[in-house]
Amino acid sequence: MGAGIAQCLAQAGREVIVVEPDPTAVERARRGLDEAVRLALLLGRGDRRTALDTARRVRWSDTIDEFDAADFVIECAVERIELKEKLFADLDRVCPDDTVLASITSAIPIARLAAATARPDRVLGLHFMNPAPLTDAVEVVRGAATSPDTMARATDLLTALGKQPIVVGDRPGFVLNRLLMLSIAEAAALLDAGETAATVDDLFEQCLGHRMGPLRTADLIGLDNVADTIEVLRRETGEQHYRVPPALAALVTAGHFGRKTGQGFHDYR
Questions:
Q1: Whole-prediction pTM value?
Q2: In a domain, 267, yes or no
Q3: What sequence ranges are listed for the domain 3-hydroxyacyl-CoA dehydrogenase C-terminal (predicted)?
């Protein structure tokens, strides 16, 4: 997701620093960015000069100390509460006082992340949809302390990227994932009861007109992220219907995370 957001920013003329301490992940993200730019060309979004400019505007680093002059930071770490809280505390220490700190968290309340900083008025959620370059809407999460100026800066940035900001309140899972993760969990539970992934998704797509059923959607998001998000929702809401069904847990344990690994609820090999 981080590489996709970097692509959106760079294509809009922004200078971007991507911080990733794992060299293997950096190489994977570089390749992903190159492939995404080529796809954008094939879809008629920009030209070759635009593609070259996009690549030149993205710089890679292994330390957040590079953000000492940043005006807007979008955090894209995995969905682990303690990890994100530490990261926000570190960003608060490194970044200028006026820097906006945004998270693409799927379910963690923004108030929790803001509390790790001395600038809760400069913290909000920007829940991009996957793949970020090809989806227009972004769920913008206003924390209790998020200032009007921060909201304006965030929505202005999204508008400049060609995105549609949809503002929601702060709660575990916000709006979209509060509903979506429950649907995915129940769909996966049906597999444990003997239904097939194709049957579940075909019903959603052919009867309800959804572009993708819940299990194909989960494969696109990444099943590891889905499982983490469901666990966050269970932990933060205390509601036991947010649970990781055995069918989903087994796939994650086996390293089958969906489209990004070639296999998930469906086979993409």
A1: 0.91
A2: no
A3: 173-268
Predicted pLDDT of residue 34: 78
Q: What SS3 class is residue 256?
A: coil
48 to 15, 77, 161: CA distances (angstroms)? 18, 31, 19
Predicted local distance difference test score (pLDDT) of residue 46: 63
What is the rounded CA–CA span in Å between residue 35 and residue 27? 12
Cα(261)–Cα(7) distance, integer angstroms? 21
- What whole-number distance in Å separates Cα of residue 72 and Cα of residue 152? 12
For CA atoms 55, 77, 130, 250, give the dihedral sign.
positive
Q: What is the pLDDT of residue 137?
A: 96
Task: Give tens-digit pLDDT for 22-50.
Answer: 999 888 888 878 777 777 777 766 666 77
Residue 49 in domain: yes
Q: β-strands 137-142, 123-128: how paired?
A: antiparallel
Report the candidate in 15, 14, 12 with the shortest Cα–Cα distance to residue 40.
12
**67 and 99 in contact (C-beta within 8 Å)?**
yes
* φ, ψ for residue 244, nearest 5 deg: -90, 110
Tell me the two tokens of residue 71. Answer: 């005006």
With a cut of 50, which residues of the chain have pLDDT below it? none
In a domain, 108, yes or no: yes
